[in-house]
Amino acid sequence: ADLQEKFLSPQETSNLFHPKISKVTLWKWTKDGHINSHRIGGRVFYKYSEVMESLQTLKKYRRA
């Protein structure tokens, strides 16, 4: 599968950040519209490409 369209769990998504963020922070950023989330079968996933895009706006954090 194309890495750009890979779906990540909230845990995997928080691990992409350096320094690592908590799931609470991730949830808050999602709620505030910084990161887009996708619901699949009642679970929440994040798209790799969209997380990378959000890093542009969340300048304090960089990719691990």
What's the short version?
This protein is an alpha+beta fold. The protein has helices at residues 10-15, 23-31, 48-57; strands spanning 7-8, 17-18, 38-40, 43-47, 62-63.
- Count of helices? 3
Oligomeric status of the shown chains?
single chain
Q: What structural class is derived from the secondary structure elements?
A: alpha+beta
Strand content: 15-25%
Largest sheet, order of strands side by side?
1-4-3
Mean pLDDT figure: 86
Sheet bearing the most strands, described?
Answer: 3 strands, antiparallel
List the helices and strands and how they pair.
Layout: E1 7-8, H1 10-15, E2 17-18, H2 23-31, E3 38-40, E4 43-47, H3 48-57, E5 62-63
Antiparallel strand pairs: 1-4, 2-5, 3-4
Question: How would you describe the overall organization of this protein?
Answer:
By secondary structure, the chain is α+β, with helices and mostly antiparallel strands. Helix content is 39%, strand content 22%. It has 3 helices and 5 strands. It has helices at residues 10-15, 23-31, 48-57, and strands spanning 7-8, 17-18, 38-40, 43-47, 62-63. The strands form 2 sheets. The protein has a 3-stranded antiparallel beta sheet with strand order 1-4-3. Strands 2-5 form a two-stranded antiparallel ribbon. 12% of the residues are buried. The model has no long low-confidence stretch (mean pLDDT 86).
